[in-house]
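re: ur question from earlier - yeah i can do the single chain one, its not a big deal. heres the input i used so u can compare w yours
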Amino acid sequence: MRSVGGGTVPPEGVQINDDTGPVKNELTSAYAEGASITLICLANGGKPLPRVTWKRDGKSITNETQYFPERRKSQSVLRIEKLMRSHLLAMHNCEVSNSVQSPPLIVRVAIEMYLRPLEVKLLGQNEPLSAGRRIDIVCRCRGSRPPATITWWKVSALEYLQ
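and the output i got, formated as C-alpha cells:
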C-alpha cells in the first residue's frame, strides 16, 4: 500500500459481479431482452474507503456507495429492471476514488444479451399451392441475437385449422 498524502491510501482493486458471479473480459453473462440485471462494483481497501460510482456515456447513473469498514470494502449496486435492445453491449463504467490527488480506478463492463427476432417473413411467389407442383419459399428472420434457428414443420390442413 502506498500513501497518496495526508494518510490517504488508494484502493487495491475493483471487481464487478453480475447475477451469476464475477464478470470476466468486460462482458456480463447473457441476459434475455426484458430481463432484469444487477451489477455490483466492489472496491477493496483504500483509506478512506473509496466512493463508487456507475457511469454510462460519461453520465453518472448511480453514485450511492455502501461502505463496509469491517471488511475494508465499499460497493455500488446498479439495478436495471428491464433490459432493452439499447442495453446490448452498452458500456458501463464503475469509477472508484478516494482522493482528488489521484485518478479514479475505472473498470468497464458491457451487457451481453439474447434478442428475439424483430421480424419473420415468408418470401416467394404469392400463388396458390397445388399437389405435385414444386414451390420455393424462403423464411427470412432479422433482429435476433444469436441468429435465429429456423425450423420448418409439415402439418395437415386439418391440424392447421384447429
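The chain has a mean pLDDT of 91. not sure if urs matches, ping me
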